[in-house]
Amino acid sequence: MSHPRPLLALTAAAVVTVVALGTAGLTTGSAAAPPAVSLGAAAPADRLPTADQLKAALLSTAELGPNFTEVPVGQSSASTGGGASPVAGCDALRSLLNGTEAGPSPQLPHQEVEFDGPDGNPMVTESLTAEDAAQLTSDFTVVTDAFTDCHSLTFNDGTDASVTFTVTPVTLGDRQGAPAVRLDGTLAGVPLNGYIAVERFGTVALSYGFFQRDDASSQLASLYYRAAVAKAERTLGSPAGTATAPPASV
Fold first, then answer.
1. What pLDDT, on the 0 to 100 scale, is given for residue 188?
2. Cα–Cα distance between 145 and 150 in angstroms, integer?
3. What residues does 199 pair with on adjacent strands?
4. Which of 183, 199, 214, 249 is the most exposed place for a label (fewest CB within 10 A)?
């Protein structure tokens, strides 16, 4: 049964596009008047990786396996389009997922990738964003607090189809305390399950999403998240969780 896929795609689009820290307008506070977090340009003291370096640190089909297909950038079936705001519910996390992408720049290098399994199940999304270390610390705190405070989210695709997910903090990888949540919902009797996680590597933030239907196991979600973290550590030269940039020689 494949009709829940558009909602999975919508969820994936919100995550990879907006929970990208520096590339998005992060907001906090109440739904009525959320104050914006101003994202500053990278400080000269910070040596940020280039977009090409970030691209090299992303997962590829080689890590995921032959059953996955990479969705070309700009052709993702997960596009929300038209400035849609598909998320309702928890104020803190909703404001992150409903935000408007500012777009990458030399001051905020950004790369993202999406993979589809057979018939779009499961879906894996990953993005890497670089920004000034102090600003990234602030942004990372906003996301961590949102993950902790949120208990329910509703996604809709602009039609009659919608699904409410329960949101539960989890440990997805090896580092205890790394922000991650599990999403569980049902659409037309079909179980939908997803995971959202963020991690930092000095001046780089990783955003990860995994979405599936008819399967509540976290095994693949954790496997691919660990692979994403390991590749980012290896390629960027910074251990997961560190708040300082790697040496200039890396």
1. 78
2. 9
3. 206
4. 249
Residue 211 near residue 122 (C-beta atoms within 8 A):
yes
Pairing relationship of beta strands 87-89 and 152-156 according to DSSP bridges: antiparallel
Question: Residue 124: which of 18, 16, 14, 28 has the closest Cα?
Answer: 16
Q: For position 6, what pLDDT does the model report?
A: 53
Nearest to 5 by CA among 187, 127, 182, 174: 187
Q: 236-249 pLDDT, tens per residue?
A: 999 999 988 766 55
> If you search the block for the tokens 């999406």, which residue do you land on?
114
Give the count of beta carbons closer than 10 Å to the beta carbon of residue 164.
Answer: 17
Six token digits for residue 167: 């949101």
Name the 3-class secondary structure at 18. helix
Counts for the chain of helices (H) and strands (E), in that order: 6, 9
Give the pair of three-digit tokens for residue 74: 């700009």
Instruction: Report the SS3 class of residue 168.
Output: strand
pLDDT top residue among 132 and 91: 132
In this prediction, residue 229 has a pLDDT band, given cuts at 50, 70 and 90, of very high
Q: Is the pTM of this model over 0.85?
A: no
Distance of CA 189 to the CA centre of its chain: 26
CA atoms within 13 A on the CB side of 220: 19
Contacts for 217 with CB less than 8 Å, ≥ 6 apart: none
Helices (H), the chain: 5-18, 51-57, 61-64, 91-97, 133-149, 219-236
DSSP-derived secondary structure letter, 36? B
Res. 134: pLDDT tops 80: yes
- For residue 56, which of 244, 214, 231 has the smallest C-alpha distance? 231
3-class SS at 110? strand
